[in-house]
Amino acid sequence: MFKSISAVLIWSENYKKLSDWYREKFGFEVIEELGYANDTGIGLRVGIFYLWIGNHSEVHGNNKDPYRMMFNISVDSVKESYTEFVGKGVWRPPINGSRHFKILMAISAN
């Protein structure tokens, strides 16, 4: 049946601004940029994962519910990553998860 989720797609009215935010704050690598009439966006590499940030005619304005979609990113040190994100202007207080992990939240541009 299904093996895995191969990509996450995030749609935006201003995909360039949003993809720039992910590149600047997280250091994700651009692996492709498409500019076709009905397929416009930027593909980013996140380790072995693919994140697509694209333009969509039915998406307008900022996300009114920032808790609707979240995705986890593995890091070597939550504490070091938190300090780095605070320095980049991305701030959300860290919260403790279970005994196996801690959670670092970031606020996106959209």
List keywords for this structure.
two-stranded antiparallel sheet, alpha+beta, 20% helix, 2,3-Dihydroxybiphenyl 1,2-Dioxygenase, domain 1, 110 residues
What does this structure look like?
- The chain has two helices and six strands.
- The protein is α+β, with helices and mostly antiparallel strands and 110 residues long.
- Helices cover 20% and strands 30% of the residues.
- It has one domain: 2,3-Dihydroxybiphenyl 1,2-Dioxygenase, domain 1, CATH 3.10.180.10.
- The termini are far apart.
- Strand 2 and strand 3 form a beta hairpin.
What is the CATH topology classification name?
A: 2,3-Dihydroxybiphenyl 1,2-Dioxygenase, domain 1
pLDDT below 50 for ≥5 consecutive residues: which ranges? none
Shape call: globular
Q: Give the second-level CATH assignment, the architecture.
A: Roll
Class derived from helix and strand content: alpha+beta
Query: Which sequence of strands runs across the widest sheet?
Result: 1-4-3-2
Show the helix and strand layout.
Elements: E1 7-12, H1 15-26, E2 29-36, E3 39-46, E4 49-55, H2 78-87, E5 95-96, E6 102-103
What is this structure, in a nutshell?
The chain is of the alpha+beta class.
